[in-house]
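Thread: Antibiotic biosynthesis monooxygenase, structure

OP (GT): Posting the sequence first so everyone is looking at the same thing. Length is 115 residues per the record. Can we get the structure tokens written out before standup tomorrow? I want them in the notebook alongside the other entries.
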Amino acid sequence: MTQTIVAGLEPPYYTAVFTSVRPDHPEGYGETLDRMKELVQDVPGFLGYESARTPGGVGITVAYFRDLEALNAWRDHAEHRAAKKHGREHWYERYCVHIGRVEQSYGFERDDRDD
């Protein structure tokens, strides 16, 4: 699970929202996840990601990409495709991917500094 949120991106950009159901600690998942995190960093146009998982196995990862070309490059990456295939065969009970174009983005951060 990520402890920070992606902020300060200038729209437009694209999101890939990956929602899944899987057991909490499937064999080999952590190593594959670490490898995917490493590989996606090298995709030109990758902007970051956020991820969370419930104890019951529902997980959501939101990845941010500058454009559809970057998102498609990640979708089509050979190792990523192999990991997706393995995940369908061994880890995931089900998943869904939603692709969206972000037109507007804003946020809030509490400022607890003593001035």
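GT: Both are above now. Quick notes for whoever picks this up: The two ends are 33 Å apart (CA to CA). The beta strands are 13-21, 46-53, 58-65, 94-102.
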